[in-house]
Specification:
Elements (H helix, E strand, L loop, with lengths): L2 H45 L8 H4 L2 H17 L6 H18 L16 E8 L7 H11 L3 E5 L3 H10 L1 H4 L2 E3 L6 E5 L4 E5 L9 E7 L2 E9 L3 H20 L5 E6 L7 H8 L3 E2 H4 L22 E5 L3 E9 L8 E8 L3
Parallel strand pairs: 1-2, 7-8
Antiparallel strand pairs: 1-12, 2-4, 3-4, 5-6, 6-7, 8-10, 9-10, 11-12
Helix pairs in contact: 1-3, 1-4, 3-4, 5-6, 8-9
Length: about 350
């Protein structure tokens, strides 16, 4: 074989080798990117570094990191070019850690509820500065037989629209605070109404109802948002946690917390004596925001119904009300023996 022929063969071999290496290199780069994002979110979730920092914004996507890890694990196991003992072990450990963090919210509490327990049916909706369709909200209240409705971002014009749509006939008792950004409607008489004494960006509205002879304290929540000022949002959540510690077992906090179950300030609020109704019932990946951003579906849960140990969740769900970027949350709570 001539020198020229040998050179041509070697050049062809190099091209074939390079052609094989490029897809492998691209696959490894993509895998590395997936693992880096998933690992970073896990670290933030475990350390609580989101409190008071801009890391609170990407952390809302933490459940999706598990999806990325599962995709990465599948790719590692399927592609011989990517497979190595240490790579498989690293991806498996990361996936297991994420499962361990997320699993509790998908495991319902098997608490046995007493027969004929009194119930309180509640709902909450961020009305998007009164943009929510008032007639649709009235239909929701009627269909779900709601006892207490908390509404955030409801200006005076929105209150007038709800009155015209007939909400007052269903929920005749009010603690309406458009200047405070949250209001409460109720089928039951309200007492102890007014602004909550707490260091929040704007006052939260509070009131109480009596159910089966017991006084249930209500707090209509709308916190500041971490994208605007993460430290202010963290202070809001800390102030709510302080209130929760002093509120007793018959308490319901409901509204737009601008927080998911993965945020450290939300976990601190729950540790103050509250239970997230969705997670309690094994529905820990509900999604309430954003709505109406076609073709993007709701991605995260910012709206919650939290309750004290004197109550237990019977059901929890989300409902779409046209005109707002949040879904409503609806929950049925049972009173436990005192």
């Amino acid at each position: 074989m001539t020198d020229t022929a040998v050179s041509e063969v070697r050049a062809a071999d190099r091209r074939r080798t390079t052609g094989r290496r490029i897809p492998v290199l691209l696959a490894r780069t993509a895998l590395g990117g997936l693992l880096a994002v998933s690992t970073a979110l896990l670290i933030v979730r475990l350390t609580g570094w989101d409190a008071g920092t801009a890391l609170a914004v990407p952390l809302v996507l933490f459940p999706y990191a598990l999806v990325l890890s599962l995709l990465a694990l599948g790719a590692v196991l399927a592609a011989a070019a990517l497979r190595s003992r240490w790579t498989v072990l690293a991806v498996a450990v990361l996936t297991a850690a994420q499962v361990a963090v997320l699993a509790p919210r998908f495991l319902p509490d098997r608490q046995q509820l007493p027969a004929q327990a009194a119930e309180l049916r509640v709902a909450s909706l961020n009305a998007d500065v009164g943009g929510a369709d008032p007639r649709a909200l009235v239909r929701l209240v009627q269909a779900e037989h709601i006892d207490v409705l908390a509404v955030q971002q409801l200006p005076a014009a929105g209150i007038a629209a709800l009155t015209e749509a007939g909400l007052d006939a269903l929920l005749p008792y009010h603690e309406l605070r458009p200047e405070y950004d949250s209001s409460i409607y109720s089928r039951l008489p309200l007492t102890q109404g007014g602004p909550l004494r707490a260091d929040t960006a704007w006052p939260q509205t509070t009131a109480a109802v009596t159910v089966d002879g017991r006084t249930i304290r209500l707090v209509a929540v709308h916190t500041y948002y971490p994208l605007g000022d993460a430290r202010r949002w963290t202070r809001d959540m800390a102030a709510l946690a302080s209130v929760a510690r002093d509120s007793g077992p018959d308490t319901v906090f409901l509204g737009d917390f601008n927080a998911s179950l993965d945020h450290a300030p939300m976990r601190d609020l729950l540790a103050a004596g509250l239970v997230d109704t969705h997670a309690e019932l094994g529905r820990g990946w509900a999604r309430t925001w954003p709505v109406g951003v076609s073709p993007v579906p709701p991605l995260v849960q910012l709206d919650h119904v939290l309750h004290g140990s004197g109550l237990a969740g019977v059901s929890a769900g989300e409902r779409t009300v046209p005109g707002t970027d949040h879904r409503a949350v609806v929950a049925v709570l049972a009173l436990l023996p005192g």
